[in-house]
Structures are given as structure tokens and as C-alpha cells.
Amino acid sequence: MAPPARTTGATVTLLSILAVLSYVMINNSRSRSKSSSRKAAVKKPSTGLVAAIGNTPLIRINSLSDATGCEILGKSEFLNPGGSVKDRVAVKIIEEALECGALARGGVVTEGSAGSTAISLATVAPAYGCRCHVVIPDDAAIEKSQILEALGATVERVRPVSITHKEHFVNIARRRALEANEVALKHHETSNDVNHHSKCSADSKGGFFADQFENLANYRAHYEGTGPEIWEQVGGKLDAFVAAAGTGGTVAGVSQFLKEKKSSIKCFLIDPPGSGLFNKVTRGVMYTTEEAEGRRLKNPFDTVTEGIGINRLTENFKMAALDGAFRGSDLEAVEMSRYLLKKDGLFVGSSSAMNCVGAVKVAQQMGPGHTIVTILCDSGMRHLSKFYNEKYLARYGLTPTASGLEFLGIGADVKSVNGGHAPNR
To answer: Would you list the DSSP string of 205-256?
Structure first.
């Protein structure tokens, strides 16, 4: 019996040695794998400003998530180089225009904008060898004009009028592009004259009207970029998306993409005072009886939120796939901005605040346990003279007083949300 015992002992010893060797080999393999993963995670430097646009973080807004029982996530578009979601649109518009020949390098891009798109165009245009000419309503926050001028853009501030008026800022911007093209044509016709010394040679490459409201490059920027990023970041676990609309590009591009990925995702609009889009989505008509022609104000956008709200259907908004809409008030947006700053350290602009109001309203309708995404369009840095100006807000009864989310009916001491109105602009 002795020999079998020795054989068994030798076998056990051999197995032990093999187990140790296997353990060492597996751990070495894991170490190499982790090392390779770490090396792969280190990205090479990107080329130029444009490469830094997009792929923004999707962050959990802790205070709103905890208060509603939903996961409320914000796409941090204020971290783009130009400071807003419009960077994506500016790049897409310029690249498509260059590709089809509507814009030449050295040419001027013109746009009528309340601020963010203009700033984005002025930021990225030099990366394509182009210049920027912006027409902006003179009731937009003054710091937006200051930023544009600092970026080297030509800035025209004009009084706000109806879009049907030839002096509307969008219509003026369209004319500026035509004028630049006329100068370019004249320069080309006289370029063979050796005695001709053109004073307009700097403008000889012509102009291109970005047309953010009707140019579907706006929609495509979000259908091809923002939407896919959100889908990847949530890992397919998403119940709803909500955002306000100005041009409509963001809400259209994102909603279309998400719906195609998962038809059960609910997509909503949050609409500010004075805008007709809520009525269009919920009732199929743009105006209520009270807003009928002849009864409306000359400028219907009675809101302190900038860049959102409109009373016409744009080509971009027509692409939206929406399940419903909510109304948001100026007071709710102001209160939300202060709440986010106090509770989360998020210093957001007026449209971002309104989007977060929308996210809470969606959470209240759907109930706890859902994942909701919205857009944090830009930071509060562009809104200091109005949206974050105590005297300005007090003038219109919009002084924030809430200690929590009672302005949205959350909390023990619920106050009326009907107070406060926006200035007539």
C-alpha cells in the first residue's frame, strides 16, 4: 500500500504546483490586460478646436433626482468650447456649407440670433478660415454682444420686431449675406483691372446666411451627435427626454433619434410664456383664441428666458417626434436656477433652467423610478445682466423666494406658482 500513498502525495504536490503557476499566469494576464486598458483609455491629443466639441458629460442632477424619485440627467452642453449646445450646430452648418460650395473659406457667415448660436458661429468660424457677422435683438443680454465683439465678430444690435418685418434681425442677417455676395461678384468682375484698387477685397469671398431656424443642418447636428451620445451614455435605459425649443433643432434631432432606438421613450416639449409651440403640440394649432392676430402683443415673447419660444413652425421643429408638452413660467425658471445653484452648484442659463423645470414636470407625470434626460444648454455667465440681475427681476415680480421646490408643488409649504410675469418686449 506504501507505493500508492507516495504516488498520491506526488500527484497532490504536482497539482498544487500547477495551481500556483495557473494563479500567477492568470494574474499576470489580468495585469497586462488592465495595463493595456489603461493605455487605451489615454487618448491622443485632438486636432483643433472643433475636435473638442461634443461628447459632453451626462450628469445626474442630484437634488432633482432625490426630490422626484426619478433619475434626472442633464447633458452638460455648457462645457463645449463656445459654451453652449449651439457649438454643434455651428460646426454642422459651416461644414455642410463648405462642402456644397455655398460658403468659401475666407467668406463671412451671417446669422440672426438671440446670442448662443451667434457666439458659437463666431467661435468656430475662424477654425474654417471664415468670419462672422451677427445681427442680434437689442433686448438680449448685453454680455452676449460683448462676447461676440471680443471673438472678433461684426455685431449689429437692432430693435425686436415681428419676423414678417424686413427689419427683423433674422431678415437683416439674410440681407447681409446677399450684400457680401454682391461685393464678391463685383470684386471678381473687376479683378482683371490692374488699375482697380478695391476697398472691399477683404469681403471678396462672399457670404453665407446660416439660417439656423430653417437650415436642417441644425436638426442633423443633434440627430447625428447629441442623440447618439445620450443613447450610449444611458446604456439604453431611458424613459423620457424633455427640452424647450427655439429653432427646434435640438428637440427634433434628439427626439427622432431616441424614438428610432426605442419607441417607448417619451419625448416632451417645455414651452416658455408667449410661445405658441405648446398649443401646436397639444391642440394642433399654433395660437389660442386669446393669441389670435390682432389681440396678441406686437412682440409675443414676453419672457425672461432667451433663445427659446417661438410663434411659427420652423423646418427644424417639424422634424420633432413629441408625445406631449408642458408650459413653464418665468418664475419657475428663475426659482429653478437658484435652486440648482444652491443645491447642486450648477450655474445654468435661463433655457437650461426651463429645461430642468420640464424634467421635474415629466417626473411628476410619470412617477418615481423613471430615467429622464434634459439639456443644460449654457451656463449663467451669459445671463448676468437680466436673468441673474435682482433689480431687473424685481421690476417684473420675479424675485426668487423659494427655499425648496415648492414652486413646482414639491415640499410641505407649497406656494402659488401663478405669480410673476414677464416683461413686454
So the answer is: T-EEE--TTT-THHHHHIIIIIHHHHHHHHTT---EEEE--SSSHHHHHHHH
- CA distances to 127, 378, 396 from 348, rounded to whole Å, are 27, 6, 21
Task: Please return the burial class of 273, using the count of CB atoms within 10 Å of its CB with bins 0-12, 13-18 and 19+.
Answer: buried
Q: How many residues does the chain have?
A: 425
Tell me the three cell numbers of residue 362: 415629466
Structure-block grid coordinates of residue 150 = 471680443
Buried b (16+ CB within 10 A) or exposed e, 46-69: eeeebeebbebeebebebbbebbe
Could you give the CA distance from residue 53 to residue 266 in angstroms, rounded to a whole number?
Answer: 27
Taken in order 286, 290, 295, 300, the sign of the CA dihedral is negative
Count of alpha carbons within 13 Å of 245, Cβ hemisphere only? 40
Sign of the Cα pseudo-torsion (246, 249, 253, 254, in order):
negative
pLDDT of residue 16: 47
Which residues share a beta bridge with 391?
none
**Does residue 196 come out as left (phi exceeding 0), alpha (psi in the -120 to 50 range) or beta?**
beta
**DSSP of 133-194, one letter per residue?**
EEEEETTS-HHHHHHHHHTT-EEEEE----TTSTTSHHHHHHHHHHHHHHHHHHHHHHTT-T
Structural contact between residues 393 and 399, judged by C-beta atoms closer than 8 angstroms: yes
70 CB neighbour count, 10 Å cutoff: 23
Query: Whose CA is closest to 242, among 360, 99, 126, 338?
Result: 360
As a whole number of angstroms, the distance between CA 150 and CA 123 comes to 10
What was the pLDDT predicted at 255? 98
Q: What is the pLDDT of residue 414?
A: 40
Residue 299, phi-psi category: left (phi > 0), alpha (psi -120 to 50), beta (remainder):
beta
Q: What is the pTM of this model?
A: 0.83
pLDDT, mean of each 10-residue run, the chain (425 residues): 46 44 46 43 75 97 98 98 97 97 95 90 96 92 92 94 89 94 80 44 76 97 98 97 97 98 98 94 77 44 83 96 97 98 98 98 98 97 94 95 97 45 39
pLDDT at residue 8 in the model: 44
The C-alpha atoms of residue 303 and residue 424 are separated, in whole angstroms, by 8
Cβ atoms < 10 Å from Cβ of 165: 13
